[in-house]
Amino acid sequence: MLRHATLWLVSLFMILASTSAPAGQSVRENLIAAADAKASGEYAFARCRDLKGKPFDAKGKKTALIVGDSYACDLVNAIEENAYLRDYQISLRYIPYDCQTVIGKGAVGLIAAKDKAFCADPNHADSLQRAQEQIQQADLVIFASRWKPAVADGLPSTLGQLGLRPQQKVVVVGNKFFGKIAAQKYLRMADDELKTLRNKVNPVEAKTINEKLAKQLGKDVLFVNPHQLLCGDEASCPLFTPDLQLISYDGRHLTQAGARHVGKVLFGNSALGKM
Fold it and tell me: For each successive 10 residues of the chain (275 residues), what is the average pLDDT?
């Protein structure tokens, strides 16, 4: 594994060295750095770890609670990179993808048998039940996850059982997906090709679940559709920002430049910008 990774990095730098134009070299340097899964992965989750389970304690500030899995961590980065929600004290309740469930009868079977012990341990995973008290305290509650189909189906009922107050603002952020990332391939492409490059993505994950959420959530819940805002109506998504920065290092989670870009798109074109 180490030998393979070393050879991959060597090949990247050989391609980089063969690029003579300074502007093109800068794009490729940025691409190599962003495609480093270890470094980008550390960036993706660092702020998340700092905010997990943080109690609200800042007097005089409004409170915002972000609830969800690693996609919630992406949202935290998108907020912080652009200095959004500065009037709020922000906390996070982290519920891993494998631990997603609903409140009520539909919860049975939504967590696989192999994950039940992990998800039941508060040292590893949070839950809607454990987070419910803080959810009720927050002025703004944002749910952001890579939604499982069954959890998306049960979300309206779950929200109804959380005891949310009429004066609370509630936002649900839908799914995003950028497909398989192939950094070595992109290094060999011209800048003009990168600007228009799009990946085909799973339409169920990227579109169907979002469309279902948009129809099912009540008028008191604001829904944000990342796929529609970032990718349009087709089942394909751009891979680079307008200034040719890689958006996602693994197809699901955002690079630093990707978080900055995604944040500007979501907050500039949805109810998030009016919080």
Answer: 45 42 67 92 95 88 96 98 96 97 84 94 94 96 96 94 94 96 94 95 91 92 96 94 96 97 97 90
> Positive or negative CA dihedral for 130, 136, 139, 142?
positive
Q: What confidence score (pLDDT) does residue 118 get?
A: 95
CA 194 to chain centroid, in Å, comes to 23
Q: Please name every residue paired with 246 in a beta bridge, in sequence order, or none if there are none.
A: 240
Give me the residue spans of the domains in the chain: 2-274
User: Residue 18 and residue 53: Cα distance in Å, rounded?
Assistant: 48
69, 126 Cβ separation under 8 angstroms: no
173 forms beta bridges with 144, 224
The 10 Å Cβ neighbour count of residue 233 is 8
CB contact at 8 A, 93 and 143: no
Q: Bin 68: left if φ > 0, else alpha if -120 < ψ < 50, else beta.
A: left
Position 25 scores a pLDDT of 53
DSSP per residue, 212-250: HHHHHS-TTEEEE-HHHHHH-SSSEEE-B-TT--BSBSS
Encoding tokens for residue 22? Answer: 């300074």
The pLDDT score that the predictor gives to residue 18 is 39
Structure tokens at 13: 């730098």
The fold of the 2-274 domain, in CATH, is: Rossmann fold (3.40.50)
pLDDT at residue number 166: 92
Strands in the chain per DSSP E: 62-68, 88-94, 140-144, 169-173, 198-200, 221-224, 236-238
> How much is the pTM?
0.89
Give the residue carrying structure tokens 């993505």: 201
